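Narrative of activities, Objective 1.

The group set out to show that a structural description can be obtained from nothing but a protein's sequence at a throughput compatible with the screening campaign. Below is one input-output pair from the validation batch, recorded exactly as produced.
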Amino acid sequence: MQILFPAFAHVRLKVRSCGTSIPNPSKRLEAPRPTHPSDPEVIMTSLAPPEIETRSVDNKLLPVKIAATLALAALADWLFYDQRLGLSVVIFAVALACASLFVNLGNLGHRRLLLAGMVMLAGLLPAIEELNAASLVIIVLALGAGLMLTTNHHLDGLAAGASSLLDLYLVGPFRLFRDVISAFNWPALTRGFTLWCVPLVLGSLFILLFVAANPLLAKWIGQLNPGDPSSYLSMGRALFWIAALAMVWPFVQVKWPRSAELADDARRFATNDPPRTADITSLLSAGTILRSLILFNLLFSIQTVLDLIYLWGNGTLPADVTYASYAHRGAYPLIVTALLAAGFVLVTMRPGGAAERSRVMRALVYFWIGQNVLLVISSMLRLDLYVQTYLLTYWRIAAFVWMLLVVLGLVLILGRIVLQRSNDWLIRTNLLALTVVLYACSLINFAAIIGDYNISHSREALGSGVNLDIDYLVRLGPQALPAIDRGLALHAYDPNLVYRRNCLVKEQRERMTSWRSWGFRNLRLQRMLDRQQDSAAS
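Output recorded for this entry:
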């Protein structure tokens, strides 16, 4: 009755309390009697529905917000789908910021509005200059910071701001599906969708990455859709719309965790207790994690078996798929896949959580991490085959180093779970590994290594392969002079090459004229050049 008629229940409780608590003037006033769970009043009041954070979206602006979300998704489709990125990212960022400002006017913090505008302007400038990975990350951070400054009234520090941004970009996109279901008030459907939301969304993302990395999978999936690939009603376009709606919705229907929740989560993270954030708990329950691990292991097994057959076992590929395309295509998408997998394991296998205590889920995580390690090793083999064909560059060496760090990070995640260590231990060991790798790289003469490798594996030296790229060799700087001398011995006399080689020698001598630019590596190179000059003079 209290749930159905809250006003009646409220009046009834007030009358009852008046009848049982008449003050006695002959007695002095006593402190209120502490309530106990067994008291009738407490039992009666406990029937009220608890206030939960995940209530349905029922505000007056809901139609406006839905229209704004659909309009922004349509704009994203027009700007981005099957198009090159550039100024379109800036246009969409401005449209998203304006739409978010309009639909959240009643919740704006006007004191920070000017600061948010300055942050947005500063975030757009690098992308206006040139859109690259760094400027794209800056735009994403500027959008989140601007929204946070204007609508998050619980923002009270840097830690709260960082946690709010993580909540916006990691949890926020999944709120669309929860809000759509909760708007219809279907409890059973909500529970079922919550269990399968994360597995299906992340599983679809893994499938897209595997298709981008594996021409065989792309061919097989293409055969499942025999229609016109340019049709607007394609699976890719539908997935794009879903992703666009999910990414836009947190900016339209703004919801921030409270500062008390953020402080509690930070304390629990430090003490290895699982956080109690409602969104994380509802989206990453034990059932969701179990279904995700089973689905992800099945998806990764397909790629693992294909790599074992065709990449490691040199199996016979179909006639329209070359071995080079299979080996070279998937190095970088598979690394992205491994990083997403590592992030999922870190989020779900919290120290002391239900997933980590389950033997079944621990076994599935071990198997999945093993598949990811094999996946990264396959990526390294793919990159090695690519280097054998197209020679070595700084970026390819950086990719090798990055893949090595990813493998080491996956092994350390496995070690944290097996040894039951804290997240603080995992962070410290990863930072130590990164420091050791960077320190070792600082002592290696990569210019000389690249030059020697490219000379030794060029067509001029082996009679097969690709031609030596003399321009790139010269751009390596004076440290590539020994390799350039070997290249001159392989080439016919080229006045242009000799002139550029002499320019590098001059640059090296200028470096040695001042003690400010002195170094052991330059000293060793200079001694070699002096010996060459003495032998030529004699």
